[in-house]
Amino acid sequence: MTSAENSTPSRSAILEAHDLENAPEDVGFDELTSFTAALCQTPICLVSIVGDTMQHFIAKQGLDVSGTPRETSFCAHAMLGAGLMVVPDATKDPRFADNPLVTGEPMIRFYAGTPLVTDDGFPLGSLCVIDRVPRAGLTPLQEQGLRVMAAQVMTAMGFRKKTKIQRTNEAVAKQALSETEQKFRILADTMPQMVWSTLPDGHHDYYNARWYEFTGVPEGSTDGEGWNGMFHPDDQDGAWERWRYSLRTGEPYEIEYRLRAADGGYRWTLGRALPIRDAEGRITRWFGTCTDIHEQKLLMEQREMVSQELSHRIKNIFSVINGLIGLSTRVHPQMKGLADELRSRIMSLGKAHDFVRPHSARSRPSATQATLKGLLDKLLSAYQSDPRRILITGRDCRIDDRAATPLALTFHELATNAAKYGALSTLEGRVAIDISESAEDVVIGWSESGGPTIDLAPSVEGFGSKLIELSVSNQLGGRISNTWKPGGLHVVAAIPKSSMSRPTP
């Protein structure tokens, strides 16, 4: 074996990589050898591939055998040369005089072979022509033709190698994909959720075992658009509309609907799906889940019923307290003014309670539920005879039940005082409320204008002022300052963001 061959790990592996088993039929090598033999005017032409122990004739003209031992091969010598190897008379060449192929069939006398070498310099064999009588050599045209035909052979071999590598890679990729899909199906079948997938156009092509267990339908019966028939009739249009929107925009799919179970009843289910995208951002598949939320849904409905009942009873308590205050003023008429103020404050607490109590999607009063602007709009609506009378601007922020009560008391007092003594006591008066944020606080500014002219700030702090200070400082941990200007009262409250609402889980 030569040094060139020793530099490779395995000659057999390299030959196998060229996929030469059916080369003559696939690439027309038999026609090539026939043409080359005619061109060189020889009875024999061979495409010889030299292996570790044998040379194999993958194409031949004028010879019946398919190969010979490597030790007797002329081509094993020719393939190592830099160019055309010519043997005019083998009986007179010391390398071949005693060769069985010379002393016996096919009685080689003349041999001319050009190497078949790969692009990276590995010798595969030789394209050769053989005659049974000695010859001086080939003509220049015949030599050129032999080299051209050899190049054709190598081009065809290179193509077959690339094709085999491609087929091998495709087979490996297909096997890997099959294994990945099998692992996915096993994983999906172990999940408690129903798992499904669709093509980019939304055509459903896979459901896991949990889907068929839950629905009780035959496997494959809900492929394509058959899945929509599994929804409650009242939910089908909404589910379709939401699904088409996700397909059109690529946005995640999420919806609650009632899904028909194996017993024929319907159970509430949460449907979700996300798109899988390729490197260019194109959606290649959608993967989704259906989660049984029926018990949670029923529990939420029960909680809503209890919440509504508790809220109703709390409101009744407010009403009873107002009634008791009314009865007391009949006995003590001189307390009527104080009683009216107390009833007004209790009513503001009732509004704050209704504003922040737990709500379901059906009972929630408005989109501004549980926000500062929403609370202010509700509390101050009684003073909005003119839409411009109280203007609320700036950022909005979320509030919870802990913040609602002190905020309601604070702004109820400010509005009541403004209606009695300040801007809201005149037709031209206005109140501007601005909401902003600092790094740590929500800052609320209350500015009155157009009311009675103020000469001096009140010398005595009233109950309302004390109530505001108690609400902002003690309950909310904030700071509040009052500025009495000739045009009206200006109040700034800085309340920690952490006091406005608890962190969302």
Description:
The protein has 505 residues and is of the alpha+beta class. It folds into four domains: 3-166, Beta-Lactamase; 191-292, PAS domain (Beta-Lactamase), CATH 3.30.450.20; 296-365; 366-505, Heat Shock Protein 90, CATH 3.30.565.10. The protein is built from 15 helices and 16 strands. It has helices at residues 3-6, 11-17, 23-27, 29-40, 75-78, 100-103, 140-190, 209-215, 233-249, 294-331, 336-356, 372-380, 401-420, 463-475, 497-500, and strands at 44-50, 54-61, 67-69, 85-87, 110-117, 123-131, 194-198, 204-207, 253-260, 266-277, 283-292, 390-394, 430-437, 441-449, 479-485, 488-496. The strands form three sheets. The protein has a six-stranded antiparallel sheet. Strands 8-7-11-10-9 form a five-stranded antiparallel sheet, with helices on both faces. The protein has a five-stranded mixed sheet with strand order 12-13-14-16-15. Strand 15 (479-485) and strand 16 form a beta hairpin. Helix 4 packs antiparallel against helix 7 (140-190). The protein is elongated.
User: What fold name goes in the CATH topology slot of the largest domain?
Assistant: Beta-Lactamase
Number of domains: 4
The appropriate CATH architecture of the largest domain is 2-Layer Sandwich
Content of β-strand = 15-25%
Total strands? 16
Give the termini distance in whole angstroms: 74 Å
Indicate the radius of gyration in whole angstroms: 47 Å
Contiguous runs where pLDDT drops below 50 for at least 5 residues = 1-9
Helix content: 40-55%
Which homologous superfamily in CATH is the superfamily of the largest domain? GAF domain
The structural class is: alpha+beta
Could you give the order of strands across the largest sheet? 3-2-1-6-5-4
Number of helices: 15
Mean pLDDT: 81
